[in-house]
Design goal:
With 137 residues, the chain is of the alpha+beta class. Helices cover 17% and strands 31% of the residues. It has a domain of 89 residues: Immunoglobulin-like, CATH 2.60.40. One of its GO terms (molecular function) is unfolded protein binding.
């Protein structure tokens, strides 16, 4: 269908038209398309900003974790030199009769990965969460 014949010639309608034409056509799927897990992890990482400080003999990672207890945060080393900070922020239980007018605080999984140097002493890594700020040294 040509939208121009109907007097509708906007980029939005061209995009919708293209999506309708390609919906259900899996032959165009790229083998390089990101997996759902990759997209989920990328979103979790993007939503977890961190400051990284370099000292002569160490690094310090500072991540805001408002409203989380230290038991809700996982800090571990994987693959011998990748520092992984992860966890999940859950929504509070709703009280009877209350309804949200606005919901702006992020809930869900969060994660950050940092590649450490080859000679990093991973046994000496420590983490402290105080006043909603996680500090990993």
């Amino acid at each position: 269908m040509d939208f121009r014949l109907m007097g509708i010639d906007t980029p939005l309608f061209h995009t919708i038209h293209h999506l309708m034409d390609t919906a259900g056509d899996d032959s165009d799927k790229s083998v390089n398309a990101p997996s759902r897990n990759y997209v989920r992890d990328a979103k979790a990482m993007a939503a977890t900003p961190a400051d990284v400080k370099e000292y002569p003999n160490s690094y310090v990672f500072v991540v805001d974790m408002p409203g989380l207890k230290s038991g809700d945060i996982n800090v571990q080393v994987e693959d011998d030199n990748v520092l992984l900070i992860s966890g999940e922020r859950k929504r509070e239980e709703e009280k009877e009769g209350a309804k949200y007018i606005r919901m702006e605080r992020r809930v869900g999984k969060f994660m950050r990965k940092f590649t450490l140097s080859e000679n990093a002493n991973t046994d000496a890594i420590s983490a402290v969460c105080q006043d909603g700020v996680l500090t990993v040294t």
